[in-house]
Amino acid sequence: MSPKKAAPSDSRLVLENLRIATPEGRVLLENGNFTMAAGELLLLIGPSGGGKSTIVNVLSGLLGSEGAAWQIRGSLTLNEKYYDLADDVCDAGGLVFQDNALFDDLTAAQNLAIVMDHAGSPTPELARLIESLLRDVDPNQSVASLSGGQRQRVAIARTVLARRPILLFDEPNSGLDPHAAQRLAELIKELCIKMGTPAMIVAHHYDDLLEMADRVLILDPVQRTLHQTPPERETIAARLNAIGAVAEERAQDEIPGVPSRAWEKRLRERPPILWFFHYLWEYFWVLTASPLTIAYVLGGAAIVSFVTMWFGFNYDMLGDYMRSFVHDDALLGVGFIIMTIAVPLIGCILIVARNNAIITADIGNRLYSAQFRAMHNLHIPGRKYLNTAIVLNMVVGSLLLILLSSGVATWFALQTWRLIFPGQPFELWREHFFRLFVMRPDIFWENAGWVVLKTVISTFLASLVAIHSGMGRKNSVIDINNAIARSIVYGTSVTLLVHASIAVLQF
């Protein structure tokens, strides 16, 4: 539904009777009302988890954008436009995200250019404002290599260039020291005044922002309403303390108590080796035993078995007579190729391509989120646990999957043979498909050894490639993505090289 005309208002924004309920039905806000005037800086504070960021998402049009069915009711008037929030999506707010949400694959200049190319060129005044904001930022520098403060200012500049009627900031002072937080508040206030645009800051730590705020809104999760108050520390602290006391009292009444002995077992020392087995099982499930993994690898074995058998008997141009004449030896050769060459090769390629991506992504994320540093600080040998569990599962798990693949390939070879030679007895197929192995058991064990050797060496080396790719320096998500791509390419290349080299020795 498109926005409808409304009577002009002295305020740039008027929000009335806002009601917000989560997809589960929990009401966060029952009757929220506030206004925002041109150039005004509004501070939204309240207890954690009360719904402050949800209000910002309503104003930016992002609430429910990921598919969740939030329940919204209320009206919003922005200049001469009216929104019924039960039906209309209001995306009037340009949001500076808490983690900046910069496009890591673009430079600082490109992060701004992509907005300008969609929103239009800035006015000369706005361009000068952006230049002063980014005076110490190299336009050609990757945003991943910028400092935290520089990244934040690039994010602010990008949002400003979108020229939305409202500026929204979600916890912009998180992680900043008092001086930096105060300087940020001054910067935001300067933007409001020079652009004539109202702004709302959602903040948990508000002390350093109060001086620049025109008004303060306190989200009260107990009464499910918004309280307006002047930017005075004592008044705000008293109100928050009162809300916190009531909320804590209600929580004690509503939340069932944890059994007194619930933590007793958790606070007992256990042998550290149990954590190695924890990670061993975790990776066994992800890399080997999950239904999707099994279906993926066995599906590949079924396809290669069908293709090899079908075209092995349909390649000649001499007709049915010649095909029947060479049947016995052709079936022996096709069976030998399927069991010793085709299935092990395709199986290892599929396993390595999938698992290398998973391993590198997992390790890269742990490195990027400082989990390995935390383990090191806590004297936990995390790298040994994870790396050993990964290598063991890649090698042993691959052997298990290749064994299962051989069984599936055998069954599909039989069904394909029956399509080509309908009415022929199963005993005929069994006699010739396995003839070489039955007549010469030494050949069976020798070639089984070659298959094991190819599988072990290729998956062992591929797992080392995946671990090395994941452990490289990660400054951004782009670095993780690039590492995943390298891991797949190098891992599958190593697999092909190992299988080709051993096949030469094998024959």
From TrEMBL:
Keywords on record: ATP-binding, Lipoprotein, Membrane, Nucleotide-binding, Transmembrane, Transmembrane helix, Transport
Keyword Lipoprotein: yes
Any one cellular-component term (Gene Ontology): ATP-binding cassette (ABC) transporter complex
PROSITE patterns reported for this sequence: ABC_TRANSPORTER_1, ABC_TRANSPORTER_2
CDD domains membership: ABC_cobalt_CbiO_domain1
One of the protein's GO biological processes: transmembrane transport
GO molecular function, one term: ATP binding
A Pfam family recorded for this sequence: ABC_tran
Chain ranges of the ABC transporter domain: 13-246
Signal peptide: none
The UniProt record lists the keyword Transcription: no
Gene3D superfamilies named in the record: P-loop containing nucleotide triphosphate hydrolases
Ranges that cross the membrane: 283-311, 331-353, 390-414, 448-467, 488-505
Protein name (Swiss-Prot/TrEMBL): ABC-type lipoprotein export system, ATPase component
Annotated organism of origin: Desulfonatronum thiosulfatophilum
